[in-house]
Specification:
about 110 residues, alpha+beta, 3 helices, elongated
């Protein structure tokens, strides 16, 4: 369920203060945040945030396309390294001509449409 329009976007209060301080500062430094649930506002565009993903801080440079999204969307918490069975098949070369059945299946599916 989405947030009510009359409430407006959720942003932690300290985040607005940090962003204003970074805008007024001549230095261009990262803002370390832990609030993955906060919505990205137009006044954050051009700033660099360091979003915590549970293990480390991931640098996120805010662009115009990110406005309206949450900070957590740009700092993934899980990393997928692939399936172990795929690695075994590549190592042994046990692909076994897997391309031919896929091509035949695709032709059969195309003819059925």
């Amino acid at each position: 369920m989405t947030r009510s329009v009359w409430k407006g976007p959720f942003v932690d209060g300290y985040l607005l203060k940090k962003a204003d301080a970074a805008r007024s500062s001549p230095r261009h430094e990262m803002i370390r945040i832990w609030s993955r649930r906060s919505t990205i506002l137009p006044q954050f565009v051009g700033l660099t945030f360091s979003v915590y993903n549970g293990q480390k801080h991931v640098p996120v440079i805010v662009t115009e396309e990110m406005v309206g999204h949450k900070f957590g969307e740009f700092a993934p918490t899980r990393s997928f390294y692939g399936h172990s069975s795929d690695r075994k098949a590549k190592r042994t070369g046990g692909d076994g001509g897997g391309a031919a059945p896929a091509a035949a299946g695709g032709a059969a599916a195309g003819g059925a449409s």
